[in-house]
Design a protein that fits this description.
alpha+beta
Length: 117
């Protein structure tokens, strides 16, 4: 019974996983990994960005309540941030990169879902 409950919780989490897009008043964009927002999930997302999507890590800092990695992908600079209050998200201030980063975020989320199945 306990195994079935764990399985059902995992299936529910996978179903609810999605990317949320926020455009801030300063014109920057944030792509949130909904239901993949924990501190430990940051490492998984960063690993998938690097290993499966050829992103180069320029810096990776861990502070008390936040983790921040600066990355480069196909000449696009962006940040992966983990904030205890907000979860994991990709941030960019270049509107020309937004569509490409949405595709990248979706690729990462699809990979996470596949690994959890």
């Amino acid at each position: 019974m306990m195994l079935l409950m764990c399985f059902l919780n995992n299936v529910e989490r996978i179903i609810k996983m999605h990317i949320s897009k926020i455009i801030n008043s300063d014109g920057s964009m944030e792509l949130y990994f909904e239901k993949v927002g924990h501190w430990d999930d940051f490492e998984l997302i960063l690993k998938l960005l690097q290993q499966e999507n050829d992103c180069k890590i320029l810096s990776n800092e861990e502070m008390i309540y936040i983790r921040q990695a600066k990355l480069l992908w196909n000449s696009i600079s962006f940040e992966l941030i983990q904030d205890d209050m907000l979860g994991n998200f990709i941030s960019s201030s270049n509107p020309y990169d937004f569509d490409k980063l949405e595709v990248l975020a979706s690729n990462v989320l699809d990979s996470i879902k596949e690994k959890l199945n």
